[in-house]
Input
Amino acid sequence: MVQNKSVIFLKHPTEYPVAGEHFEVQTKELHANLKDKDVLLRNLYISLDPYMRGRMRDTNKSYTAGFVLGQPMNGSGVSEVIESKNDAFPVGSIVTGMVDWSEYSVATGAQGLRIIPDGRNSKIPLSSHIGVLGMPGMTAYSSLQIIGQPKAGETIFISAASGAVGQLVGQIAKRQGLRVVGSAGSDEKVAYLLNDLKFDAAFNYKKGVILENLEKCAPEGVDIYYENVGGETLEAALEVMNNHGRIVACGMISAYNNPNPYGIKNLMHIIAKRLTMRGFIVSDFAAQCAADFARDVGGWLVNKEIIYKEDVAVGIDSTPEAFIGMLNGKNFGKQVVKIADL
Amino acid sequence: MVQNKSVIFLKHPTEYPVAGEHFEVQTKELHANLKDKDVLLRNLYISLDPYMRGRMRDTNKSYTAGFVLGQPMNGSGVSEVIESKNDAFPVGSIVTGMVDWSEYSVATGAQGLRIIPDGRNSKIPLSSHIGVLGMPGMTAYSSLQIIGQPKAGETIFISAASGAVGQLVGQIAKRQGLRVVGSAGSDEKVAYLLNDLKFDAAFNYKKGVILENLEKCAPEGVDIYYENVGGETLEAALEVMNNHGRIVACGMISAYNNPNPYGIKNLMHIIAKRLTMRGFIVSDFAAQCAADFARDVGGWLVNKEIIYKEDVAVGIDSTPEAFIGMLNGKNFGKQVVKIADL
Output
């Protein structure tokens, strides 16, 4: 009998989740029992994303369905079909879609799965399909255009700029002729922004005063703030925003694990400077942007006009630590877990 | 020689302005010395508005020109032309535009003045031209449509709902088939919202817990929050907003006189609920809305389909106290000062 390791959700955390208390890896025997249209997946990569912290909350107010206590956690993944009762997904297909954080999982009715053409002979890493070509990439691409409305010559400030979304936002903004400023949590990440992604300016938010660093990096103010972190960084951005600026509210990771988050005192700038701050989730924009996104980002990636850094944890056992590390900003680039080789 | 009383700006306040310290009434002899195109005005009404607190700040970051130390404060007014070197504004004309907080003032080149047709025989109070038909009315009308995008059946929550802007927002929203909820600072104001303006629900924000009151008044959540106050009221609104809600950021009076304003901790709702929060100043929208505004609000007012409460202080000497009172929410309805009878 095949043994199957899964990351099981145990308890709703109120602060940082703790492995063994809120989630843990458990081993069970695999019983696939496929019904008509089902497929059995051998999972290769799973995506770890900050928004998933919201799915751990004990509330029905989170914007995506919560994880179920006692069940495997789940998210975007790349998998191989190893057993199939669905003609559209023959054995051997490489697919992407929502999968369990498990070595093997059943996709009921193959719902939401999509075949990756040439998946077995891909010119780009398979993990790209849950990163730069997946949900984080679509998030960056769609929201920058629809909410940010970038114009050449403007300045954009991106927080968590070396992360899954930020690094693509910055590179697209550079292509569109903006001055690009980023913040990140280590000197190594800042060097990546400046040297590899060619940002115009960047700073380590853990060193010095955020507002002073931002003022130095954006002497002409900020027209678009791409918000991933919240807290003092948002407050600093509000101080330096230009009139009619746009705040793309993608994430506020500083608040996710804190039951008493930092209070923002200078929202008056939203009125005085006539700012627009707009939240979104990627599914709001996916349909209208899918074709453009695939053509643009897919093309840039194949032609090596953009780069995309991933932080790859190896093995299902590494998942809890990688997830907690990502919530603490320890990841350098988009966090994925490689569960198995193809 | 004619004596002329004016309210002179003396000092930038950091908290609530104090009469005699930050501004005071002074009497000087009137020396008109009109040049070509100038007119001399006998001022009848002046408008006192919360945004003017921003013009008292010692900063160039306020969104309108600051008051000038040692000079009269100014704002919208209604005046009679009593001396004229401008053929477009003959003696006896009733005009509205930016005027000094003075009994008499010179309008250089008659800049920005507009004649009120039938001003001497008006069917509506002359003060309407600085209230419901003036800047506050245009503010309410334009921003509700452009930012709020109201749809019949939705719920709108309006803070400072009996104020200059709020009372018109509420009545327009009722006309458009929305469920209208308001907050105000006294039981008398709440009774006005319910009985006179026909709001669906209203509460006194000084009694009980704001969030609990709001939840009771808006059991199906809030689709549009018309923001005039900031602070805890904004925080409560964020809690009850529905997905895709809009926040019309018109004012945050709770923060104007406080160098250390209340910090907003739950902005994460902007992302989770995909909210849009947008600031504006009325001049952003005035051109595109002027014709519709004059037709709609002017028509409703003449036909008594809407009502509009004013709080009228009498005499230029009453101005400092009335202004401070307005910043404290003591006004009941739109605050004006009647300086003289026609």
Q: What stands out?
A: The mean pLDDT of chain B is 96. The interface with chain A takes residues 54, 61-63, 230, 234, 243, 249-252, 255-256, 260-281, 284 of chain B (CB under 8 Å). Residues 129 and 265 of chain B are 39 Å apart (CA to CA).
